[in-house]
Design brief:
Chains A, B: Belongs to the HMG-CoA lyase family. Two copies of one chain form a homodimer. Chain A is an alpha/beta fold. Helix content of chain A is 42%, strand content 14%. Chain A contains twelve helices and eight strands. In chain A, strands 1-8-7-6-5-4-3-2 form an eight-stranded parallel β-sheet. In chain A, strand 5, helix 7 and strand 6 form a beta-alpha-beta unit.
Chain lengths: 303, 303
């Protein structure tokens, strides 16, 4: 089993987490939380989404958030950018990295973006190209790589073909998404084996959801293949807000604890991250799925 | 990454789960639940403990439970047996396998058993020897292998030395316990590397708690070393009842889902196991940590 010396963590809680929470945070609370995250040692925070507020009302204050957070030197502040209109707002918000997104499966892409895959790709190309001109780095999220809620299995050839098109756009990173939280370690290695023949491992990140408890196991399988970049959300925020206990993103706190125990550097202070997790749990108004958060609470670590 | 074709699961929920739950189940409820578990395809169920009721009041009805469950042919019904007195009751209860137990760390052994390690070993030898004479198979639990709440790290030499003594007693299986739920995949492989040089992998089981979310990741690391026997508790029952959200045993349901996705045979019907998990969750009166249980509930799988 291959274990890296260090990994990079991309904290997506303020975007992928908050966009799915039932509780609506005030702009000021979002800013406070992102500022807390900035002080944990995280080097990357996806702070919001510039998708039209009609689609993600929870993040309609994207520009206000982007303009008001305290920028810690060395931290990359990213945001989701759906199109050129969104990019204009992201640039106004002085975002460091633009994240574009699409699905590997046709049906999910249509349901999520209201466009076919072939209609989506030129839009992403325009955004990444404009973003690069404005000196932003770019990241592409590819959803439903490990399973689609409508089409089930997504053919590997399709994942490869779309990934090739995305890398042709000169994106800096491709984040492979386990949207429904059903990826398993064997599948992770099969998909990575195919992709790593074609693309550099330094440019591939994995984005797991812990819906069925396999997020950390999948990360171990990915590390074994040489992957060193993982998305996570503080506290395991996200997932379906109407489903108590149903997990959202892989909890950054659980990943950091595991890495610390395994001797893998993350640069993140677990104690500070857990304080940020506890803070957002109170705002979310529900028990978050992070095991380390719940264990820390039960051990009275916060008193 | 090595992946086995099939694994054996030892369901310990009725013992290791229930002994730690705050809610007290009636004897009749325990019997009903064990009977449900017997119908899931599980081939091994640890149904109770013959430890003196003074120490584990929740399982004071051990004999009644053992005498009243329906025995499904092919299923091994095991119980915890602390000493010869306990063995007499276990034999009266027609138990198939006697599980003895001790800790790898001196302090935890004293706190848990009220004896030193060297005082404990002859007692275990007497029980396993008498059990074998009565045609019972035997299993030994070694706790705190991956960390002790009092002594922290437990020296590998000590784990090896105690394991040797236990195997000298001709136990059929040694279950290595991550009592505090802090084992990590690297540590699992280090410990196993040392033990597998000395003992057959078929006789070693791993017993994880999911306190920090690493149970499945640890199992992946153990499978990679050739281990194919794992303990689990239906629903992730167990852990500290006064700590909401703090996880107990690795959830059998999560292990079975992962194995099914990875193409590893378990012989267990996930649907039936989830029904048993939902049933015991209602009796426990708290949200259980199994991710698959919570996801199944949120997807309305039970309606």
């Amino acid at each position: 089993m291959k274990v890296p010396k260090k990994i990079s963590i991309k904290e997506v809680g303020p975007r992928d987490g908050l966009q799915n929470e039932k509780a609506r945070l005030s702009t000021s609370d979002k800013i406070t939380w992102i500022n807390m995250l900035s002080m944990t040692g995280l080097s990357y925070i996806e702070i919001t989404s510039f998708v039209h507020p009609k689609w993600i009302p929870a993040l309609s204050d994207a520009l206000a958030v982007a303009k008001s957070i305290e920028r810690k030197p060395g931290v990359t502040y990213a945001a989701l950018v759906p199109n050129q209109k969104g990019l204009e707002r992201a640039l106004e918000g002085r975002i460091d990295e633009a994240s574009v997104f699409m699905s590997a499966s046709e049906t999910h892409n249509r349901k999520n973006i209201n466009k076919s895959i072939s209609e989506t790709l030129p839009i992403l190309k325009a955004v990444t190209s404009e973003a690069a001109k404005a000196n932003l780095t770019t990241r592409a999220y590819l959803s439903t790589v490990f399973g689609c809620p409508y089409e089930n299995d997504v053919p590997l050839e399709q994942i490869i073909r779309i990934s090739e098109t995305l890398f042709d756009m000169e994106i800096d990173e491709l984040s492979l998404g386990d949207t429904i939280g059903a990826a398993n370690p064997v599948q992770v290695q099969i998909v990575l084996e195919a992709l790593l023949k074609r693309f550099p491992k330094e440019k591939i990140a994995l984005h797991f959801h812990d819906t069925r408890g396999m997020a950390l196991a999948n990360m171990i399988a990915a590390m074994d293949m040489g992957i060193t970049t993982f998305d996570g959300a503080c506290g395991g925020l996200g997932g379906c807000p109407y489903a108590p206990g149903s997990s959202g993103n892989a909890a950054t706190d659980d990943l950091i604890y595991m890495c610390a125990q395994m001797g893998i550097e993350t640069g993140v202070d677990l104690g500070k991250l857990l304080l940020a997790a506890k803070w957002i749990e109170e705002k979310a108004g529900r028990q978050l799925p992070s095991r380390n958060l719940q264990t820390a609470k039960s051990l009275d670590c916060f008193s």
